[in-house]
UniProtKB/TrEMBL annotation:
This is Basal-body rod modification protein FlgD. Required for flagellar hook formation. May act as a scaffolding protein. The keyword Signal does not apply. Pfam families: FlgD, FlgD_ig, FLgD_tudor. Transmembrane segments: none annotated. Residues 89-244 form the FlgD Tudor-like domain. Residues 124-164 form the FlgD/Vpr Ig-like domain. One of its GO terms (biological process) is bacterial-type flagellum organization. Keywords: Bacterial flagellum biogenesis. InterPro entries: FlgD, FlgD/Vpr_Ig-like, FLgD_Tudor. It comes from the Bacteria.
Length: 251
């Protein structure tokens, strides 16, 4: 919104009566609303020289300026209303994520719950080879080191349920002999808890780590004072909606 300052009003009217009216208004604010603008016009008409009244064109010009001020205020009100509606829509969309599973940019540690899936992505650089996906538990012990071979450059996606690993839609070879089984012979997955994921490969003759993003569950959402939507994740960390790489299915 454009502010109309005291000096611009003095230049506009150039008479003492108008100057007096403006001086009273300027003590409270540097902005001129439509009421103050209308009062200025009335004051000018009341104090104009009867032997030299305002020209019709000048009066029309002042009315046009008054209309402009009024329109600007209406536009500002409309923008404020649209902004409020947009924030409400964002909050509604974010609330639908509560209880859901999202992949967060730059997050490489996820919580495994039995019966649920950890989702992840990695950026595979062109020319990388001999890739392997390594999974480390919270004690720092590597529980999986799965050979991925060569993968296409670009985004690689994976899913892990604590036992089975799927990469780009294909199940990987896992050493299932390491797992205990229940009385029915079913594999018992790795313990529930936090795991860190990394993908390394050979690139230009040296070992290189790829950028990995993994998932977390959303416990709640918070609307910050500046309108930003904050996701409160199950591991106690937070993320903004702009950091969501993908929204995943839940078991």
């Amino acid at each position: 919104m454009t502010d109309i300052t005291d000096s611009s009003i003095y230049a506009l009217y150039g008479n003492s009566a108008a100057t007096s009216a403006v001086s009273t208004t300027s003590e409270d604010s540097n902005e001129l609303g439509q009421d103050e603008f209308l009062q200025l016009m009335i004051t000018q008409l009341e104090n104009q020289d009867p032997t030299d009244p305002s020209e019709g064109a000048e009066f029309i010009s002042e009315l046009a300026q008054f209309t402009t001020v009024e329109n600007l205020e209406e536009i500002a009100t409309s923008i404020e209303s649209l902004s409020s509606s947009f924030q409400s829509s964002q909050a509604l969309q974010a609330s639908s994520l509560v209880g859901g599973n999202v992949t967060i940019d730059g997050n490489s540690t996820s919580t495994l719950y039995w019966g649920d899936i950890v989702y992840g992505t990695a950026d595979v650089v062109s020319g990388a080879s001999d890739l392997s996906l390594q999974i480390t538990n919270s004690a720092g012990e590597m529980v999986e080191n799965v050979d991925l071979g060569s993968q296409s450059s670009g985004t690689l996606s994976f899913k892990w349920d604590g036992a089975n690993l799927e990469v780009n839609g294909e199940l990987m070879d896992i050493d299932y002999s390491q797992f205990e089984t229940d009385e029915d012979g079913n594999i018992i997955p790795h313990d529930a808890g936090e795991y860190t994921f990394s993908i390394v490969g050979s690139y230009n003759g040296s070992s290189t780590a790829m950028d990995v993003n993994t998932s977390q569950f959303v416990e709640s959402v918070t609307i910050l004072d500046d309108g930003t939507i904050q996701l409160n994740l199950d591991d106690g960390s937070t993320a903004t909606s702009s950091e969501i790489a993908s929204i995943n299915e839940t078991a």
